[in-house]
Amino acid sequence: METASTASATSGANPYLRVQDLRVRFRTEDGVVRAVDGISFAVERGRTLGIVGESGSGKSVTSMAVLGLHDPRRTEISGKIQVGGREIVGLADSECRKLRGRDMAMVFQDPLSALHPYYPVGRQIAEAYQVHHRGVGRRTARRRAIEMLDRVGIPQPARRVDEYPHEFSGGMRQRVMIAMALVNDPDLLVADEPTTALDVTVQAQILDLLADLQREFNSAIVLITHDLGVVSQVADDVLVMYAGRAVEHGSVEQVLRRPQHPYTWGLLASVPSLHGDADADLLPIAGNPPSLINLPPGCAFHPRCRWADENGDRSRTEVPELRPVTEAGHLVACHLPEAERQRRYAEEIASVGVAL
Amino acid sequence: MLRFLVKKTLLALSTLLAVSVITFGMFFAVPNNPAELMCGDSKNVCSPERIEMIERRMGLDKPIATQYGDFMRGIFVGRTIGSGETARDCPAPCLGFSFRNDEPVSGIVGRTLPVTLSIVFGAAVVWLVLGLSIGMVSALRRGTVFDKVAVGTSLVGASMPILLFGPLLLIGLVYETGLLSYPRYTPITENPLAWASAMILPWFALGFLNSATYARLARAQMLETLSEDFVRTARAKGLPKIKVYGRHALRAAITPIITIAGLDLGAYLGGTVITETVFGFTGLGRTALNAALNLDMPIVMATVLLAAVFVVAANVLVDLLYAVVDPRVRLG
């Protein structure tokens, strides 16, 4: 998506979604799982934030926390989440659910399991509409459902509104999910890996649809994905997460073209290049994501980082803060000095070439 | 949908046919001549001629295949049992005459079937309502005292035989305390109130013990369904808890229970022998047991076939119900 300014979301004037120092912990028999350990970001209306990270980095947990979907009996949430000025953390469920589906909505990863198999799609969409519009009759709600199906590009919506989820193809199902999420014109849309379950051509269509709908509704979108290609296509800003922490944050241009965190370098380098040598080996990031119960001390990434020893002992003892770099709006959490990082990137990474 | 139904019905009918053949054949595999048994009460007059006469009267002189054919025909259009001067007319549905006391079997069935039906359907209401509600609430209140008590009680209920529970109830509620009178069966057509009050004990005994299974089942199904993605979606839409649990979770959780409940019911309709014996009711199960011990073939045939009909019908019904509830099954 083309944007005029390169200002990152954190410096926005009046963001619709603001998250500050979010921490989410799960109490389990094996210990406390620190799924999210101090995340801050903001998203304005009309802009898209892409949250990127491996499985287990805390991306989905963050999105569920924004919508207030965690079970309070088992989860400890601290920090601030403000949606349209309203504080979500600590909000009673009866209040929170008034916002869910109306001011903020979520699109899930697998539409086949996320839609109820026993009810026709029209009924499910109408239900989402009726719960926030009291007194609306069945026929009106049904008309609205047909309208939404049409808007998301489903052919013959008046006929397909009575069909069941299993009668749709994967891409169509995801459109249905999007229709259901947007039926009440929410100002915030959280899409948790909306295209992961789809093949690439359908993926492109869905992303285009999201972009169109954003233009139409001027909604803020948080797009969670592990796919950097998706991020480069639709996001305005990017937040890279690792082990429940933010390691890099900035505009998509800054993070993908001038990354300054070793983890981001690793992610970009691991993407197979269409232009490079077909026989070249793929470059994974050595090691495994850490246990969220026993996080490594200091920088969570240090066991896998090639340059961890260059900071003396700091990487092992001190948690790096997310600090701004010279470029406005670009933040990185790394102990390596900026000049070092830029040099390393230029010499060792950029020369390999990334096809994005 | 129609094809589905037709296929299931044909399968059901062929199963019933197979059951009838097997039961009939099994009876003749037993080395006993029922004619001998029948004439056995007055030994001195049990001559070979008398045995032959009895055989002719009961139609046992014909080859086995013919006997089977006659029997099956009799069910639908009635037949004449015996030959010559001992021939008796047996209108449809003809299930023969008891070897023991020569009573028409259809009469015996007509007398005892309502008893079993009363016991089973009443108890079924108890065990389904009690079991499902306790199970659902346990799932929603998982880990609380209610849940733990419910699971513990259901464990006791599931392990206790009605052989013990029934008499315990009788001792506790009838003999010692006199709260209830000893149950005596009265047909519902005669006196509905008396019928119901007689049924209370067997309904409670059978119902309570069986509810244990359903409580555990409902709890497990509900817990599993609550972790499904579509329940999360329902919450994300902003639905109130009642709708999330009642409309979304419940409907999905209940489908496997329908299958089990239906098959269970079908099996019980075949005869609740122990319950009937404990409470002194003369139902289908008890009759069948006595007939089997006395080698009274016509009654055995009738009760086995009836039990098979119930089980097979329950199977077909359950399949149908499943297709109604779960749209994904319909297109198959």
Q: What is the number of strand segments of chain A? A: 12
Helix share bin of chain B? over 70%
CATH superfamily of chain A: P-loop containing nucleotide triphosphate hydrolases
Per CATH, the superfamily of the largest domain in chain B is MetI-like
CATH class wording of chain A: Alpha Beta
CATH topology of chain A: Rossmann fold
Named CATH architecture of chain A? 3-Layer(aba) Sandwich
Domain ABC transporter (chain A): 17-268
GO molecular function, one term (chain A): ATP binding
Protein name (chain A): ABC transporter ATP-binding protein
Family (chain A): Belongs to the ABC transporter superfamily.
Q: What's this entry about, in short?
A:
Chain A has 356 residues and is of the alpha/beta class.
Structure description:
The complex is a heterodimer of chains A (356) and B (332). With 356 residues, chain A is an alpha/beta fold. In chain A, helix 4 packs parallel to helix 7 and helix 7 packs parallel to helix 8. Chain A is built from 13 helices and twelve strands. Chain A has one domain: Rossmann fold (3-Layer(aba) Sandwich). By secondary structure, chain B is mainly alpha-helical. Chain B has helices at residues 2-29, 34-39, 48-58, 64-77, 105-140, 145-159, 162-176, 192-226, 229-236, 241-269, 273-279, 284-293, 297-325, 327-330; strands spanning 79-81, 88-90. In chain B, strand 1 and strand 2 form a beta hairpin. The mean pLDDT of chain B is 84. Classes of the chains: A alpha/beta (356), B mainly alpha (332).
